[in-house]
Amino acid sequence: MLPGGVLAITSSGGDGNYAVNFVAARSDTDPQALAACRASTLATRRFKWPMGLARTNDGLLACNLRERSAALYKFALDGSMDELATAPAVAGYSRGFSRCAVHQQTQRTFALAMTSGDVVCNSVIILDSHLQVVATVEAAASTRLGEDAIRDVAVHGDQVLVLTGDCHREGPGLRLLDLDGQYLRTIADGPLRNPQAVAASDGRAFVVDEDYKDYEEDEEDEEEPVRHVLHVIDIQSGDILQEVRIDLVDLIAAVLVDGDEIYIAGFGESKVVVLPFAGSEA
Fold it and tell me: How many other CB atoms are found less than 10 A from the CB of residue 280?
């Protein structure tokens, strides 16, 4: 989410070119801020395959896959949104970065790096405010060909939430780390099925997962599209506080919590689902 209520999303054009698009997130989005973003150089920039986005105190980070020259870009938040810095792919992780999250106090970035090949291995790369590598942690090889053991990463307070999938050696769950990448504990490692994205806010983790109830009903129908459910999880206890079915199919690109709204974007669909909070529930 950018200043003025402008939502930045990655998308693919019909010609296969990928870009960062800007849309009004709310009815009160500043029209001048939206127009400035759409007129910026970033709006016309084409990428190999942009993935996760995250804000720093002075810029917008964009993860990039399949382009070794720059796996992570940083763009200015104002003006023409010019490129401020880049970070190349880390040695051994030639596919680049797929997701990222920023600890606002230290401006450390936690980016999910990926290898190439049939057996995917990914790790969390910690970078400083200048996008220099500090450490590589949580290396995990997938137990299934072509899928990622680690799906996403988020930051909440002084903890890093690493979302693992069902092809992780320890199964799906939320692995909690400190800011140096030291493992603390795991939560929600029982109820999750095949999670794909996570965000964190106000003591809660918001995990988008496959809808296991829908799956069980249609498991014999291979043509049935996979649907999803949002789990709202208490980070301290690990308890699931709420579950909400989501009108998105196929893969999930990202989930974002901004104020009293939750934004969920899909890979194959040109739409973002927005869930408002009603009291303490979504």
Answer: 10
47-57 mean pLDDT: 91
CATH topology of domain 6-276: Neuraminidase (2.120.10)
Query: Which residue has tokens 């769950």?
Result: 173
> What are the structure tokens assigned to 42, written together?
């970033």
Cα–Cα distances (Å) from 70 to 67, 156, 278, in that order, read 6, 27, 41
pLDDT digits (tens, 9 = 90+) for 11-42: 765 556 688 999 999 999 999 999 999 999 99
- 0.90 exceeded by pTM: yes
Q: How far is CA 239 from the centre of its chain?
A: 22
pLDDT over 70 at 72, yes or no: yes
Domain boundaries, the chain: 6-276
Nearest C-alpha neighbor of 47 from the set 28, 33, 75, 67: 67
